[in-house]
Amino acid sequence: MPDPVRLPYSQLDQLPDRDPEETAEWRESLDAVTEAAGPQRAAYLMRRALEHTARTEGTALPSLLETEYVNTIPTSAEPAFPGDEALEARITAWNRWNAAAMVTRGSKLGLGGHIATFASAAWLYETGFQHFFRGKEGDGSGDQLYIQGHASPGVYARAFLEGRLTEDHLDHFRQEAGGEGLPSYPHPRRLPWLWEFPTVSMGLGPLSAIYQARFNRYLEHRGIKDTANSHVWAFLGDGEMDEPESTAALALAGREGLDNLTFVINCNLQRLDGPVRPNFKIVQELEAQFRAAGWNVVKSLWGQAWDEIFALDTDGALLRRLGETPDAQFQTYATRDAAYLREHFFGANESLQALARTLTDAKLLELFQTSRAGHEPRKVYAAYQAAVTHKGAPTVILAQTVKGYTLGAGFESRNANHQMKKLTMDEFRAMRDVLELPIPDSALEGGTVPYWRPAEDSPEMVYLRERRAALDGPAPARKVVAKPLPMPADKAFDSLKKGSGSQEIATTMAFVRLIKDLMRDKETGKRWVPIVPDEARTFGMESLFPTAGLYSPKGATYDPVDRDQLLWYKEAKDGQILNEGITEAGSLADFTAAATSYATHGEPMIPFYIFYSMFGWQRTADQFWALADQLGRGFVIGATAGRTTMTGEGLQHADGHSHLIASTNPAALSYDPAFAYEVAVIVKEGLRRMYGPDAEDVFYYLTVYNETKVQPAMPEGVEEGILKGLYRFNEGTKPQADSPQLQLLASGTAIHWALEAQQLLAADWGVAADVWSAPSWTELRRDALECDAARLEGEDRIPYVTRALAGAPGPVVAVSDWMRAVPDQIAPWVEQDWTSIGTDGFGLSDTREAARRHFGVDPQSVVVQALAALARRGQVKPETVKEARERYGL
């Protein structure tokens, strides 16, 4: 660490000093200690005094952000190890072997895989599986395990040892096309009985784990599920902590005291390409970061071999040397011989040289090559026990390991080991000997390394089964035991289907009114989870504040400034609304936890996450992909949608492309409803599909608008068209028998431009236009793609969009407040001549009318495009298009 800057003043100068003379005596004493015994001794005494004072009841002193580069828990303070260490060592050895064998066998097909990560973290997982991680056969929830993605081979190896996977499964690692293979990483959608949480998109695991722990508390505080025994464990890499999402919510976890959460960071000091902090120390950096956020930090760095060495370090020279050695140099020490260590590490000063002379070469190599706390079950157990017993704050365990441990000199601590996918047979023989596995040479004579497991009645297998039985069954495991939810009464939906009469309301408000009514339902009302990133008032949701309340684990410890108003800001421990502040990533992590509660806890919840539409998919598309992988269910609402409806907001606020991004997510059912009744039909169908007897693993994306309009009553017989994505809303009147005809397709707020264009076409140009509402361009395309695939297999299926428009006269002109690529999704299946207009390009600040004229989507521009389409067919004269442009000032 750099030397502190000496300032001519102190913050303490502002505080009252009741006894300046006593203060001076303390300072003089420290000066004397520094002069007589050195600054390290003075710092030690200050640390001891601070620690003593902090433990005294009634005192409140801040903790230091960094401590020495030693274990937090001294060996003398470690709890008794409750297991059979020898048996656990053999079980761990089998898992190491089978994980490496699986990846190596698969490498013959060029499939890849990762060996070194699990090799370094094996004991971090195995100690948890043997003593801490609860399965779902108890309360149905168990613990939630966020497995580091690159360590998945080790979890598969353990599942194989437990009998949950076969050799055939292992031989189909990364071979999923046939339907029986194992996914490369934790993917619940691909292996839904094993994996609960997708984590390999690095950074999302830590973020999701925090909000999962928070949601567990939410369920408990709202009286829905007792989750007091559920603990969230997130296994992370030190390199992964570079991702901004990894640390984005640390303060939330600290602020809310989530002591049901433990991060286990595997500090093998390596990223994918090299050291994490070559010139610095990642453990110290993370310690300071987590302590500052209010976490309990447990450093588990050194194995038992270091204990006697630290005892010989009477002047602190060894501690200082460890503290000043950068990570990249320490990685080098782990690969060099004893002579190098004596010269480059211990040669720094005479005190270290004298210490080194007491150590054998073998001892030196043990210290620097193998003795890490993360490789010793007693050290790991002590850290885990400290984590689960700590109250009032989440815990992070910083466990130091060697990447590639037990895989041999060619792997251990090598920069390239992340990309090394296989072992040679000689390397397997060496690994067998290191792990002391009873595999005969004859089994290693062929070209394929064998899998190996003890007999079912062996001590190892008996012990393995006993430990998992004591911890409520296998883990990780995913089970869906939630019962279907009853459908709410039709009354709430019917109110939107009736229309708004003469009142103008936006579809955003229509949705909020619908949800407010649904939250009153006696059966399912309590299961709604409104989630909003600090824009509730923008969306007209403040009416929910005093009735539903905003969730806070502390309730309200203050007198709200608006307590005397009707719509006051009511925080409550059992509040229903999750108002997350300005964090779309955190809000979507909340949504994911709620959307998967049906599996995680057996409690189906109905989340709706409403956000400023520009800041949803664009910012967090990776999280939406993980949501789909985790089989989440719920409603995602892009409010203030469209590129031209946000008056004055400008380029970074104008969403014209979220439907295009959403269309790439196979689990997202995307709708752009034009009217309130369409919202009602879509939400009702969504509840049936996601929470009914035949629940599907999908989620809904609806875009709603802030532009107020009179909402019409629902026409008869349009439900199917709404859900499939297209129906004729308004049939045009032919001014004359031979009037040209065409079809106007529109979604969302663009329906109003199409309706006005319909009138202008008839009145000014004698053209009859039918207006169609297209609530979902994406669903129309997906149906068409399914029909194309069916036809290739000999089935005669015609896409819905083709059937719906069959026989409709004239060309088709599609308009929306989105990029043209959104409606263009269906163009190949429209038999008529196709034209689309939209809002391609960046948004801009102006009035709605000016913005729409700029993009060429206002009613007059629609008219001109329609006339141009007719002119190309020879149904109007080309001069008509020019005349229309001049008339409308385009």
UniProtKB/TrEMBL annotation:
Reaction(s) the record says it catalyses: N(6)-[(R)-lipoyl]-L-lysyl-[protein] + pyruvate + H(+) = N(6)-[(R)-S(8)-acetyldihydrolipoyl]-L-lysyl-[protein] + CO2
E.C. code: 1.2.4.1
Entry function: Component of the pyruvate dehydrogenase (PDH) complex, that catalyzes the overall conversion of pyruvate to acetyl-CoA and CO(2).
NCBIfam families attached to this UniProt entry: aceE
Cofactor(s) required, per the database record: thiamine diphosphate
Lineage: Bacteria, Bacillati, Actinomycetota, Actinomycetes, Kitasatosporales
Keyword field contains Oxidoreductase: yes
Residue intervals of the Transketolase-like C-terminal domain: 725-858
Keyword terms: Oxidoreductase, Pyruvate, Thiamine pyrophosphate
Ranges where the record places region Disordered: 1-25
InterPro entries: PDC_E1_N, PDH/Transketolase, PDH_E1, PDH_E1_M, THDP-binding, Transketo_C/PFOR_II, Transketolase-like_C_2, Transketolase_N
Family annotation (Gene3D superfamilies): 3.40.50.920, 3.40.50.970
Gene Ontology molecular function: pyruvate dehydrogenase (acetyl-transferring) activity
Pfam families xref list: PDH_E1_M, Transketolase_C_1, Transketolase_N
Ranges where the Pyruvate dehydrogenase E1 component middle domain occurs: 488-709
Domain Transketolase N-terminal: 148-307
CDD domains: TPP_E1_EcPDC_like
Organism: Streptomyces decoyicus
Name of the protein in its database record: Pyruvate dehydrogenase E1 component
